[in-house]
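Have a think about this chain, tokens included, and walk me through the fold.
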Amino acid sequence: MENLRYLLLVSMLVVASTVIGQGQKSFYKTYSGGPFDKGEGIVQLPDSAYAITGMSSSFVEGKSQAFITKIDSLGNRLWSRSYGGANSDRGKRIFYEHGVGFWVAGFSNSTATGDFDYYLFHTNEDGHLVWEKHFENTGWDRLWDAIRLDDGSFLLAGQAQANNGSSSGYLLKTDANGEKLWERFIESPNDDIIYTIENFTDTTFLIAGQQNSPSTNLPSAFIRCMDFDGQTVWETFYNAGNDMGAVHDLSFFGNEILAAGEILEEGEDDINHWLFRTNREGDFIFEEVLQFPGKTYASNICVLDAGRAFWTFYTESPAQNVYPGGPDLILQRYFFTLFFFDLSVSLSGYDPDVCNEMIPTSDGGLILVGTVSDQPWNASSGSNVMVYKIGPNDEAVTEREEGDHLVNTNDFNPLLALNLFPNPANTFIELQGVPMDAPFEIRNSAGQVLKKGIYNANKISVEELASGIYFIRLISANKYVTMRFIIDK
């Protein structure tokens, strides 16, 4: 591969924010409520509003919950709902169908084993839970991306803990109701990870990430085309000599596939930002490696039109890292047909800053969701959800607007003081800190509802339950709190 190297000089181009058709405009918003709030996925709705998902400690003290937050076309928060169980839950990708509702794919360790597993749930249009599924494997699983197919089925992609302690790429397909159809693993002596998955044709999809190369036995960037039955159509590794790399995101333009990621070239010390292009059969066309001192890699890419691409990259380079507390996030516009860099915006605070998804918008612009430090100028352990919108003519702002809470004060869960006893239990359980007439349901570790009712300060009989691990979910003010308890007979 021939490398075209750029010494990137980032010059800030600030364009005044203007209102575009259908209420769209450029904005930079953060949303907070707890010590750590992370934005992971975003979808645009037919009315030009958006729904975002992620994880947050805003809803239940000491726990991270998956959430859905709906914002209008200007970024103003409309409502928020939280989901999950007794431990940690995270939404990664969100999908919407008019008249049906939302689906969120992520991962959770609110399970019987306490291991992290893929997590999929469905809500109605107001965000009220319809069903949820956990997909348990041995070890810890992480979901990094997901797609919904035209028939309503889902493909979930990420990594699973392999038997040798390394990471295997993990691909799971479910039907429209979240029932598992099949699963595939990518396994080797080294770590294999699927970072991204994209719809490709009417019958195929692409996965990409990092996989052990059979020719070099080193972790390498790969793209694999598969059909909807999980069979491989073609697969290509992108490494020259002993280069090591990974693909973090894919996009398309014309008859080309564009990949964004990272590469550690043979003989080099630093991991570098990497963009490359292939044809639709995966054959390599061209690459660009941006070299800085320190680690830099591309995380997301979104092609809009006429070769105009935006991508985000993280950098620890002293030349580009404005804030010393962690990697800085930079959004860059690139005319890839002309090899020309243009608009550049820094979306950074003192601590590490992350873009997790970037999508085109109906007005011809784009929007991204991620996480930024809650203290732009000072060291902090906290983080906020971040949403950044660019207009169709590259309208951009650089000053972020803060103070919009992820959860309003009157939205906070009234069940924070919940207490359950005895635990382990035998014949009954009692609850403290629960409002009268709060609906409840008891589920087993497989998620099946075994009992439901309305709590009225009386003991809840569990005499009919066999020994094992169970979960009681209480519902109040459209919030869900789940506690785990044990039946020991």
In short: The chain has two domains: 3-405, 419-487. Confidence is low (pLDDT under 50) at residues 1-23, 409-416. Residues 319 and 433 are 53 Å apart (CA to CA). The longest strand covers residues 244-253.
